[in-house]
Amino acid sequence: MRILISLLSVFLFMPLVAKADHECVVLLHGLVRTADSMDELEEALSDSGYRVVNVGYPSRQETIDRLSAMAVEEGIVGCDQASVETIHFVTHSLGGILVRYYLADTSIAKLGRVVMLAPPNQGSEVVDEWHGVPGYEWLNGPAGQQLGTGEDSVPRALGPVDFPLGVIAGTRSINPILSQSLPNPDDGKVSVENTRVEGMADFIEMPYTHTFMMGAEPVIRQVQHFLRSGRFSHNSDLP
After folding, report:
1. Average of pLDDT values for 22-41?
2. Cβ pair 147, 127 in contact under 8 A
3. CA Rg, the chain, in Å?
4. Which residues contact 238 (CB under 8 A, 6 or more apart)?
5. How many angstroms separate the CA atoms of 201 and 146, rounded?
6. Which DSSP string corresponds to 46-88?
7. DSSP letter string over 153-206?
8. Which residues contact 139 (CB under 8 A, 6 or more apart)?
9. pLDDT digits 0-9 by tens, 200-220
10. Beta carbons of 188 and 210 less than 8 angstroms apart
11. Domains and CATH numbers, the chain
12. Considering Cα of 180, then 93, then 56, then 127, what sign does the dihedral take?
């Protein structure tokens, strides 16, 4: 009986692994970060059977339009080289805006699902209040200046999404100074409300900060759940 149960367990899980073998996930980090910040996600998704392309790009050196073409296309090329059937995206912060910008006027034939962690989909009031402070532009570059909530906001100009998108918003902050510029709740860089975007398939709030949520195991499990099912798990029994 124990042998039979073990064999059944193997067969039950085989379809998920086999399916993932033909799927690729492009990881796009956030502003002033590197591909290393997505290492935990890369490892977890690779262990689940996905082909993973963890893209590094010079987030401080170019505008959003240039970064979008550069980073998104590098990810697509990396996935195509593996001859996969489906291309997913998992992004952090600015990375999500790069995907939205790219998909606003370009289609991806193999596009699967997209998960955005802490995306400033409606911009951030931090940019509004801090963009004129000496050193801000040097630290955050041209793209960082485009993430406000005013007339020059690139995210606000992009409109609704028309692809399967799940958004994870953080509700904890380790930066009380920046949080003073934001409506509560927030993650220290972006308010929960401003992570939302019209057309998203699902949304969930989690008690993590903007800076470190990518490596949190519960967040990673929600990412995996959405990639498999197109929805987050809103129950407490997610393994």
Report:
1. 98
2. yes
3. 18
4. 218, 221, 222, 225
5. 26
6. HHTT-EEEEE---TTTS-HHHHHHHHHHHHHHHHHTTT-SEEE
7. -HHHHS----S-EEEEEE---S-HHHHTTSPSSB-SSSBSGGG--TT-SEEEEE
8. 32, 60
9. 999 999 999 999 999 999 999
10. yes
11. 19-229 (3.40.50.1820)
12. negative
β-partners of residue 23 are 86
Contact 69, 37 (CB under 8 A): no
Whole-angstrom distance, CA of residue 210 vs CA of residue 95 = 13
Three-state DSSP state, 232: coil
User: 100 and 155 in contact (C-beta within 8 Å)?
Assistant: yes
Residue-wise over 207-234: b if at least 16 C-beta within 10 A, else e? ebbbbebbbbeebbebbbbbbeeeebbe
Q: Which conformational region is residue 32 in: left (phi greater than 0), alpha (psi within -120 to 50 degrees), or beta?
A: left
Cα separation, 129 vs 41, whole angstroms: 32
Mean pLDDT of 43-56: 98
One-letter amino acid identity for 23?
E
| The pair of three-digit structure tokens given for residue 111, joined into one six-digit string | 């596009």
CA distance 32 to 135: 14
Residues 6 or more apart whose CB falls under 8 angstroms from that of 138 comprise none
Return the residue matching tokens 């289609």: 107
For the chain, give the mean pLDDT. 91
Assess contact for 187 and 118: CB atoms under 8 A. Answer: yes
Residue 59 in tokens: 């987030």
- Residue 176, preceding bond cis, omega within 30 degrees? no
DSSP 150: S
